[in-house]
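Side project, low priority. Logging it here so it doesn't get lost.
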Amino acid sequence: MEKFEHEYNADQIQVLEGLEAVRKRPGMYIGSVSIRGLHHLVYEIVDNAVDEALAGYCKNIHVTIEPGNIIKVEDNGRGIPVDIHPKTKISAAETVYTKLHAGGKFGGDSGYKVSGGLHGVGASVVNALSEWTEVTIQRDGGIFQMKFARGKVVEPLKRIGDSDKTGTTVRFFADGTIFETLEYEYQVLENRFREMAFLTKGLEISIEDLRGETPKKSDFCFEGGLKSFVEYINQNKEKLHPTPIYMEKDGDFPIEIAIQYTSAYSENMYSFVNNINTIEGGTHLEGFKRSLTKVFNDYAKAHNILKEKDSNLTGDDIREGITAVISVKVKEPQFEGQTKTKLGNSEVAGIVQSLMNEKLAEFLEENPNVAKAILEKCVSASKAREAARKARELVRRKSALETTTLPGKLADCSSKNPEECEVYIVEGDSAGGSAKQGRDRRYQAILPLWGKMLNVEKARADKIYGNDKLNPVIIAVGAGIGADFDITKIRYGKVIIMADADVDGAHIRTLLLTFFFRYMRPLIENGNVFLAQPPLYKLSKKGMEDIYCYTDEDLQKSYKELEEKGIQRDQLGLQRYKGLGEMNPEQLWETTMNPENRILVKVTMDDAMKADEIFTLLMGDEVEPRREFIQANAKYVKNLDI
C-alpha cells in the first residue's frame, strides 16, 4: 500500500462539536443496542486501524476477545497523536475519545487520503457506551496510556515507558446497562474481518477468542485482493471460467473490480466505498452496470453472436450468474444518510464506466472462449426472460378475467389490513385442515401446501410462473416476484411457515426460504417472514393441565419443576409430536397459533453474502461441499426422525 505522505499530529485533529449524550440515544450512533450494536463497537475501532492501513502505515491488526467479553484491538499504525490539540487544549488522543465528530479525517488537510470513518464518531461513541476503556499508544519514542469510565476520563494521558515502535491498542468492556447482551459471536466478527482483509490487499487481520476452554484463532491476508474475494464467494459454485476477470486503477480514485460468472441463475453484486459495504449501491455500481451491458452487447454484435436484427441483451440477461465485487476509494464521498449505504458522487460513475469499457473489452478480445461461454449463458437467459414475460402476462390476464384471484386452497381472513393480517403456509392438507378450524378467522389466513416443491436454486424465473406449488404462494402474498416485487402490496404483515419438526418439515422450510430469498428478498429484509415453532412434547396427568414443551431443554425443565411439586416422571404421560397433523384444532391453536402462547422465530438477514453462500451450499448443484457441511454439522442435529 502506497503511503499517503502527510503530517499526522494534533493540528490535523479537527473538532466539529463536543460529545453529546450518546448514552441516552445509542441507537442513533450504532443502530441498536442488540448484539448487532455490540458488534458495531468492535467494527468502529477496527475501522480506525484499517484507515491507517489505507493510508499506508498499518500492516497488522489483531483483535482479541478476552475472557469476560473484553475486546482488545491492536494495530501497528502511526499511533493516535498525543500532543496538545490547539483548540481543545487537551491531548489529541483524549480529544478523539471524548469529543464527538473529532478525528483526523475531515477536510482537505486531514491526516488521511481516504477514510471509511468519515463521521468521526467511532472512538468517542465506543468510549461513551463502554463501562471502561483503556487506550495505549506507541509513538514519538514513548508509550502513552489513558483510561476512561463511561466516556469520562479517569486517568489522563501519561507517558508510562519508552518504545521505538508505533501503534495503538484499545481495550474496552461494553456497558451491560445499555446492551441487551455482552456475548460476542466469534463467527460474525470473523466474517467481517475476512471481508476487510479482502478489501485491503496485503493487510493482515487476525481474530482470537480466549473465552472458551479451547481458544479459537483466524488469520486473514489476501494478496489477491478482490480476486481472492470473488473466488471465496464462488467456492461452492460451478464456474464458467476458472479465473476471475480482474481490473484495477490507481490515482485520485483508486478502483478495484473482480468478476466471475457461474452456472447459477441469481446475480451477486457487492459494492464498497473506502471499505464500507454500500448495500444500496450508488453511482459506482450504476457505472459498473452500464458498462457491463454496453461492453457485452458491443462484443456480441461485433462477433455475430447477436445479429443486427436482434434486440440487445438486457442488463438482467448479462448479470445472470455473475459474482462481482466493486471497490472504490474516494477522498470525499457523499453518502446518502448516516448509515452510509449508498454513494452519491456523480463523477464516480463515469470513472468506473471508463475503466470497465477499456479493461473488460480488452479481456473479452483476449479471451474469446470465456467471452463465448458467458454470452451463451446471457442469450439463454434472454430466451428464458422472454418466456417468463409471457408466463407473467398470462398469469396477469388470467387474474384480471377471474372474479377472484386468490388460490382455491387459501382460507383467507376477514380483515384486509396487512398490518394485523398473517398467513400460515402449512405443510400438508391434514395439518391445514386443523389450522383452518383452530385459527382466528378475523386476522389469520391458512394456505396448505402439498407435494414436492420446486427448488428455485436450480430453476429460472420462467419455471416459477404457473408452478402449481409456488403460484398459490405468489398470489396469496400479492406483491409479485423478482424485479416486479413491491413490498407495499403485501396482503399479510406476517408470512409464517408452519411445518413438522422433522426432516421433511426442515426441507420444506428450506425450500420456501430459498424461494423468498431469491424472488421475494424484501419480504425477509423487511422482517415479514417467520417460522412457527410447534411443540415437540406434551406432558399430561389426570387432574393436571397439559404442559407443552418446545425443546428437549423445556422438557427436562418441566420434569424438574413437577418433581419439586411431588409429581414423578413415571406418573406422567409423554407424547412426542412427530407432525402437526397429530394435534387437534384446539391444541394447534393453543400451542402454535395463539399470539399469547405461541413462539415465532423471525427470519432476519444480517449478511446477504453469507445467506447466499448457505442457500447455494444447501440447495445448489455441487454435492461435495454439501456432504462436507452435513458431516461437519451432524453432531448438532436434534430430534432427527429416522
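Brief comment: The mean pLDDT is 86.
Revisit when time allows.
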